[in-house]
């Protein structure tokens, strides 16, 4: 199926030479939805900036091993995994681009929440989420250009890089403002963070409801799309954890990088789709981010339970270590290496 952007002459956007219509589609409602979604995303990103402490962020930037590994997972592993899954399941170009955009998104606030629940490295988690949000302005279009080139060159779809770039660049202002607010008024920043967390979940609910009302038929998804939505988050979690573990990162950092890899920013993905593609393409695209969102949270909760079990399970490796948990041993070794590197 051919799909083009803003072209009434494209075969993929017409049927028998006539412009395709969408029963029940409401242009004013679509415009209002786009505006509300963009404003709410700006507020969520602003609240994300309110979690950033400049000194701790600078500490991780000066010792960028953890952030660098997270960026490799975020913009190296996830887009590549999305591309492989799209090819393996033979997705049509529109569905494949939705999967790629999801894989190219920066980390989401949900990763910070679950990291806090499992006693992960919160400073690293927030630093990774902030840096990936900023780097997404360049990395998302670059990854889309690399992995979608075969579909674009064949004329199956056109990627609106300008619209995507404008959406991403507009995020730099609220996240910078949030960092400044936390620097000047840390008490107020904590209150803003609570509001932003509520808005983040509210966006997901609004997107779900509106997608049913505005894009009728969007939930009639192919089985392959549903399967990818189920397995993609868990593959991201496992890949991030495995890479961090193979590079001998501390146990706490392994869990943090794992979550930052698999937990994508659903709000960014939904906003990019809404502001960049036509209604016809959104009918096919919009359900995937919501499927991914549901299963990334489910897998995150399972991971939380598994992490809690690992944290309380004692492992005796030597007689003199009676009652010492293996998790504590790994954490001690990690902190020793960190002090040695300093």
TrEMBL record:
Organism per entry: Erpetoichthys calabaricus
Coiled-coil region(s): none
Name by which UniProt lists this protein: Solute carrier family 10 member 6
Domain of life (superkingdom): Eukaryota
Compartment(s): Membrane
Pfam family, one: SBF
Matches recorded under Gene3D superfamilies: 1.20.1530.20
Swiss-Prot/TrEMBL keywords: Glycoprotein, Ion transport, Lipid transport, Membrane, Sodium, Sodium transport, Symport, Transmembrane, Transmembrane helix, Transport
GO MF entry, a single one: bile acid:sodium symporter activity
Lineage: Eukaryota, Metazoa, Chordata, Craniata, Vertebrata
Membrane topology: Multi-pass membrane protein
Membrane-spanning segments: 31-54, 66-91, 97-118, 125-147, 159-183, 195-219, 225-247, 282-306
InterPro entries: BilAc:Na_symport/Acr3, Bilac:Na_transpt, Na+/solute_symporter_sf
Cellular component terms per the entry's GO annotation: membrane
NCBIfam families xrefs: bass
Family per similarity comment: Belongs to the bile acid:sodium symporter (BASS) (TC 2.A.28) family.
């Amino acid at each position: 199926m051919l799909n083009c952007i803003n072209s009434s002459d494209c075969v993929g956007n017409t049927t028998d030479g006539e412009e395709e219509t969408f029963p029940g589609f409401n242009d004013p409602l679509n415009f209002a939805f786009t505006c509300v979604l963009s404003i709410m995303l700006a507020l969520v990103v602003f609240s994300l900036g309110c979690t950033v402490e400049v000194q701790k962020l600078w500490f991780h930037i000066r010792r960028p091993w953890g952030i660098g590994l997270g960026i490799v997972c975020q913009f190296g592993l996830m887009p590549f995994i999305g591309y492989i899954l799209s090819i393996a399941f033979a997705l049509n170009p529109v569905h494949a681009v939705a999967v790629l955009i999801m894989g190219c998104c920066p980390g989401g606030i949900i990763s910070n929440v679950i990291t806090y629940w499992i006693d992960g490295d919160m400073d690293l988690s927030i630093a990774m989420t902030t840096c990936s949000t900023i780097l997404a302005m360049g990395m998302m279009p670059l990854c889309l250009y690399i992995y979608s080139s075969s579909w674009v060159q064949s004329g199956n779809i056109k990627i609106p890089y300008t619209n995507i770039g404008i959406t991403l660049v507009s995020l730099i202002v609220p996240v910078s403002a949030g960092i400044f607010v936390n620097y000047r008024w840390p008490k107020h920043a904590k209150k803003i963070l609570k509001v932003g967390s509520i808005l983040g979940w509210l966006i997901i609910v609004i997107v779900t409801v509106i997608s049913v009302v505005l894009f009728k038929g969007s939930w009639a998804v192919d089985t392959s799309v549903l399967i990818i939505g189920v397995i993609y988050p868990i593959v991201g979690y496992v890949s991030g954890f495995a890479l961090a573990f193979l590079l001998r990162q501390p146990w706490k950092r392994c869990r943090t990088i794992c979550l930052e890899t698999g937990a994508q920013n659903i709000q960014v993905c939904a906003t990019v789709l809404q502001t960049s593609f036509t209604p016809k393409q959104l009918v096919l695209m919009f359900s995937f981010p919501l499927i991914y969102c549901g299963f990334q949270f489910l897998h995150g909760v399972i991971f939380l339970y598994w992490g809690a079990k690992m944290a309380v399970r004692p492992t005796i490796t030597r007689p003199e270590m009676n009652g010492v948990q293996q998790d504590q041993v790994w954490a001690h070794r990690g902190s020793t290496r960190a002090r040695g590197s300093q």
